């Protein structure tokens, strides 16, 4: 595959090629790994686990989303394992979406951009926009230079998200609408029609999705909260308005721990659940 | 020193013992290290540099603040070097304030808490509050269990901070005042009178400091922006109202690169600049 230089185009091509909008979340907990392994060798056990999960479910997915916290918890070996997991995902032809929700002053944002895109070679990465437009810009630029893309938090799926993101501004709209406008303004569409700056849009509040799509008509949405966090994939229709790549459906525990619900070998159960989600999401667009 | 279990008390004791409120920011750039070293061996060069800087300026400081982005940029060896730098700082009797501005949904916040406090053994760490109270809580709890403390972003020092943090809410106050109230509510004071949850309060807007102190009377303030970012240490008076440990003055480039301003050996120049800042801040309280 020749990789178009625009993130929205790359994402559209990858979703079409793999016939999947499913993003496999990797949140490895050393206490809950399969194939089971002792905590004494936690970093190696986590690496083996992540490789096994990727091998099992890659055919149903378009990307993996390693949760950086889970690798940092491994200590000095954490980032070595993270790099190795990302390499393994690329070998399986999956995009890598580094989930770190980074955000800092511009000079540091440039360093995060180097770390995530230049060194880790992530295709996409999550960003926290609290520090404003000048702080978001280095992430956008780092992505753009490499055909990678930031996914910016607009509304997250935890109950406490309402504390700040739903606050009503003096101008009448909730804060998350201001975040949405910032995201829409930061991105530029490619030939596919999809923007090169995405948004994290919590699927636990599907009522917001229509309005989000209105404010960000060309933005790829990263939809967390499906499965273990309580989201409902069938409620995600508006996300796919600009095309199937307009909505990426993330699931981690519901896939990785599928065997504890339905029984069977962990790999087989995970593959079945990922394929079930893939078919469901694909049928919505 | 017996370490009290309350972060505010630990911080007060450390500031009193070292007669310093200076936090040395470590933002190593492989292209600008002393003693100079090639990028081919960047991780080892960064480690040698950070150790040399700590050795030079530790006597004037109470803590180091490694910028996690700068270690993640080093690739798979990044967190190994970060752990080694933190070990070296502890050997020099400095507190470690891990500057990663983390923030995520509660289940992931607990993992970051483990990573930062349990594994990296940070005494303090910066947190992004955008995801709300339930997302802040795991950071507060992780700190409290270890006598460590979160410093929560309330108002940062970059120009774009005004985009969101200064937005006027329907209730009349700017968003940062809501963040300040969240921080004040999350903390609990110790015997020293200082709270165990801190705030990042950008020193480039000193006019806000009086109001911040009013909203967060017992909160330790982390004051970035001094030196290279344009802040003025003499304007920080209100920060010290609850005692000298109420205001931690961070400086990184202005200390580490002091030799490029005033000449001399890098270590000597850095030590002189750190000592100058230490005396100035100490004289304000």
Short précis:
Chain A is 45% helix and 14% strand.
Care to describe what's here?
- The structure is a homodimer of 285-residue chains.
- With 285 residues, the first copy, chain A, is of the alpha/beta class.
- Helices cover 45% and strands 14% of the residues of chain A.
- The first copy, chain A, has helices spanning 7-18, 42-57, 68-72, 78-91, 106-119, 133-146, 161-165, 175-186, 209-215, 253-256, 258-262, 266-284; strands at residues 22-26, 63-66, 95-102, 124-127, 149-155, 198-201, 221-223, 247-251.
- In chain A, strands 1-2-3-4-5-6-7-8 form an eight-stranded parallel beta barrel, surrounded by seven helices.
- In chain A, helix 5 links the parallel strand 3 and strand 4 (124-127).
- The radius of gyration of chain A is 18 Å and the shape is globular.
- Chain A starts with 6 loop residues before the first helix and ends with a helix.
- At the A-B interface, helix 3, helix 4, helix 5, helix 6 and helix 7 of A face helix 3, helix 4, helix 5, helix 6 and helix 7 of B.
SSE layout:
Two copies of one chain form a homodimer.
Chain A: H1 7-18, E1 22-26, H2 42-57, E2 63-66, H3 68-72, H4 78-91, E3 95-102, H5 106-119, E4 124-127, H6 133-146, E5 149-155, H7 161-165, H8 175-186, E6 198-201, H9 209-215, E7 221-223, E8 247-251, H10 253-256, H11 258-262, H12 266-284
Parallel strand pairs in A: 1-2, 1-8, 2-3, 3-4, 4-5, 5-6, 6-7, 7-8
Helix pairs in contact in A: 2-4, 2-12, 5-6
């Amino acid at each position: 595959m020749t990789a178009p230089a625009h993130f929205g185009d790359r994402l559209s091509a990858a979703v079409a090629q793999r016939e999947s909008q499913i993003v496999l979340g990797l949140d490895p907990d050393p206490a809950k790994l399969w194939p089971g392994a002792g905590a004494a060798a936690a970093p190696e056990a986590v690496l083996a686990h992540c490789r096994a999960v990727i091998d099992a479910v890659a055919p149903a997915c378009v990307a993996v989303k390693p949760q950086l916290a889970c690798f940092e918890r491994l200590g000095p070996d954490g980032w070595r394992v993270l790099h190795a997991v990302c390499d393994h995902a690329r070998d399986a032809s999956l995009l890598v979406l580094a989930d770190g929700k980074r955000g800092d002053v511009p000079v540091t944002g440039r360093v995060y951009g180097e770390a995530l895109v230049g060194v880790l070679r992530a295709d996409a990465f999550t960003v926290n926009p609290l520090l404003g437009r000048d702080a978001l810009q280095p992430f956008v630029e780092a992505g753009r230079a490499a055909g990678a893309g930031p996914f910016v938090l607009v509304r997250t799926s935890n109950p406490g998200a309402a504390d700040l993101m739903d606050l009503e501004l003096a101008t009448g709209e909730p804060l998350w609408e201001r975040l949405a406008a910032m995201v829409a303004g930061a991105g530029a569409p490619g030939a596919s029609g999809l923007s090169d700056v995405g948004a994290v849009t919590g699927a636990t509040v599907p009522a917001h999705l229509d309005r989000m799509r209105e404010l960000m008509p060309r933005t790829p949405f990263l939809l967390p909260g499906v499965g273990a966090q309580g989201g409902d994939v069938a409620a995600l229709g508006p996300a796919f308005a600009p095309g199937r790549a307009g909505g990426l459906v993330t699931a981690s525990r519901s896939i990785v721990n599928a065997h504890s619900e339905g029984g069977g070998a962990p790999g087989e159960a995970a593959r079945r659940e990922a394929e079930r989600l893939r078919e469901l999401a694909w049928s919505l667009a």
